[in-house]
What we know:
Layout: H1 4-15, H2 28-31, H3 35-49, H4 56-61, H5 65-78
Amino acid sequence: MFDQDKLKEKIAEFIKKPVSFLKEETALTDLVAESFALIEMLIELQEEFEVRFFVQEDLRSIKTLGDLIRLFESHATASP
Length: 80
């Protein structure tokens, strides 16, 4: 089962902010200003949670932290 709190903890660790700073409506670009750092964070999260989904269609749909959480949830439940 996917652990949303663990995902938030890993994101908070990456951006060096408390978990309480993370809100679902927060734009990912507000969390990670540089696109390279954002991709680096996404790759780390993908490896940590053993979720493989980063195709361009998925990346285009991710605008907020809530979008990212839902994407992880949907792919984690779809994984065998």
